[in-house]
């Protein structure tokens, strides 16, 4: 029965092909081939929009009957041909060239460079790691020491801890600079010993205070100093995701993301993504050292996490757009209720009152992100507010489909605590805005009762 069905379906298809053939000079396969050639030519001049590229993430297999989800390759090793010589494109060993990870690296490279002039025909210089911090570690390992790393005054605390707990033992110095003032960065570089390599480590928006750095102005200001110093400009764009900010297009040498957050997007994968600029000299210079840091350092992204991230990327644009919209609505609501809710400060670049709102408007495309922070007078009120929330979950991390709230000071190491005790960071998910407003409103009321 099944066989008969499939035969009759096949003969119907053949009959249709014959009819089409008799009506036109082109067979369907010829039409397909001709259209593919025309499209390739057009796309070379005018690439598809970001939404189209992302919707097809990981699915660039060619031919008929291709799978609509990328394959998950789990093998760690592959047979060698009988003559002992691997052919171009052969896989060897999972740490070196797992095909699912390579597919993810290709997808992130296309996304990071979508509007980057001069990227055409450049080799893929994206690297996927087993966590965001493994990516940060590998960027540092790709540099020579002595090395000075200039850090902004607000950033993800794990990066500062990695530098002071681990890299300080390896002739790596870290210094905090107010990077919202570009001249401070220039002064800081000029005071570095000229034997040192220098990394200008930007994070925009910053975690948790949502500072926005003017990436393009910083990269331009650093340029004249390159004749005296070996400088790498790096941007941690985790909080923006490549939808809102693409640092390589703004002149940075390296773009970094904790893929654990928006890119994977479902709170179920841990990985880091590093892309070297294919158009800056410093980007080129780092390629061989980054390859070594990834393959010999060995902290590669697993096939399954790579696969989950490719799947996440297919909806990244839609999720981020919605998260930006909900966050803007909620923060504007909270701003109006600030006094009543006893909120003393709101940190979000989408607010006109935010100090770098103009920079954010220019630099961030289509929204101001899905993370904001709110500050109460003291820790007790902040903790009571978080405890009273019902729709929102208390958990660290950000960028997933569920809204999370986090008391930052208590997760930061005591010796490097920079978050005020009353600060709560919120990562907005995909819930309905009215449910979130109701939850925040109720929690604010209850928190005031509890701390009285
Ligand atoms: C801005 C930022 N950078 C880097 C990281 C580290 O990423 P991972 O946790 O994937 O190692 C985080 C983690 O929260 C982060 O928020």
TrEMBL record:
EC identifiers of the protein: 4.4.1.1
Pathway: Amino-acid biosynthesis; L-cysteine biosynthesis; L-cysteine from L-homocysteine and L-serine: step 2/2
Cofactor(s) annotated in UniProt: pyridoxal 5'-phosphate
A GO CC term attached to the entry: cytoplasm
Keyword Amino-acid biosynthesis assigned: yes
GO terms for MF: cystathionine gamma-lyase activity; pyridoxal phosphate binding
Gene Ontology BP term (one): cysteine biosynthetic process via cystathionine
Superkingdom in the source lineage: Eukaryota
Keywords: Amino-acid biosynthesis, Cysteine biosynthesis, Pyridoxal phosphate
Family membership noted in the UniProt record: Belongs to the trans-sulfuration enzymes family.
Protein name: cystathionine gamma-lyase
């Amino acid at each position: 029965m099944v066989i008969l069905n499939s035969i009759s379906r096949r003969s119907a298809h053949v009959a249709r092909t014959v009819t089409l053939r008799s009506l036109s000079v082109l067979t369907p396969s010829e039409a397909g081939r001709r259209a593919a050639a025309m499209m390739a030519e057009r796309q070379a001049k005018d690439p598809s929009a970001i939404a189209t590229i992302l919707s097809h993430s990981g699915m660039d297999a060619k031919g008929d009957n291709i799978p609509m989800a990328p394959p998950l390759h789990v093998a760690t090793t592959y047979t060698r041909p009988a003559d002992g010589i691997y052919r171009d494109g052969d896989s060897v060993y999972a740490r070196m060239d797992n095909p699912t990870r390579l597919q993810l690296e290709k997808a992130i490279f296309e996304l990071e460079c979508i509007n980057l002039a001069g990227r055409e025909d450049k080799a893929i210089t994206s690297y996927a790691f087993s966590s965001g911090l493994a990516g940060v570690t590998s960027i540092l390992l790709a540099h020579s020491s002595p090395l000075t790393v200039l850090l902004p005054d607000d950033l993800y605390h794990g990066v500062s801890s990695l530098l002071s707990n681990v890299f300080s033992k390896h002739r790596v110095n870290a210094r905090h600079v107010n990077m919202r003032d570009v001249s401070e960065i220039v002064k800081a570089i000029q005071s570095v010993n000229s034997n040192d390599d220098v990394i200008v480590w930007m994070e925009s928006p910053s975690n948790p205070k949502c500072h926005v750095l003017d990436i393009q102005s910083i990269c331009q200001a650093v340029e004249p100093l390159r004749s005296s110093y070996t400088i790498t400009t790096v941007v941690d764009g985790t909080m923006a995701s490549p939808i809102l900010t693409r640092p390589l297009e703004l002149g940075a040498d390296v773009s970094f993301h904790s893929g654990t957050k928006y890119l994977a997007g479902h709170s179920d994968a841990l990985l880091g993504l590093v892309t070297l600029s294919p158009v800056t000299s410093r980007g080129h210079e780092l390629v061989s050292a980054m390859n070594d840091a990834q393959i010999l350092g060995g902290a590669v992204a697993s096939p399954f996490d790579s696969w989950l991230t490719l799947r996440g990327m297919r909806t990244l644009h839609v999720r981020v757009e919605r998260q930006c919209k909900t966050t803007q609505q909620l923060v504007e609501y909270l701003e109006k209720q600030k006094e009543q809710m006893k909120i003393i400060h709101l940190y979000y670049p989408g607010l006109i009152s935010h100090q770098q709102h103009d920079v954010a408007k220019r630099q961030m495309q289509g929204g101001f992100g899905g993370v904001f922070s709110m500050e109460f007078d003291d820790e007790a009120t902040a903790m009571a507010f978080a405890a009273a929330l019902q729709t929102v979950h208390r958990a660290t991390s950000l960028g997933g489909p569920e809204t999370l709230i986090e008391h930052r000071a208590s997760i930061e190491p005591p010796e490097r605590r920079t978050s005020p005790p009353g600060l709560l960071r919120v990562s907005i998910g995909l819930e309905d805005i009215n449910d979130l407003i109701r939850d925040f409103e109720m929690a604010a009321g209850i928190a005031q009762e509890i701390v009285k």
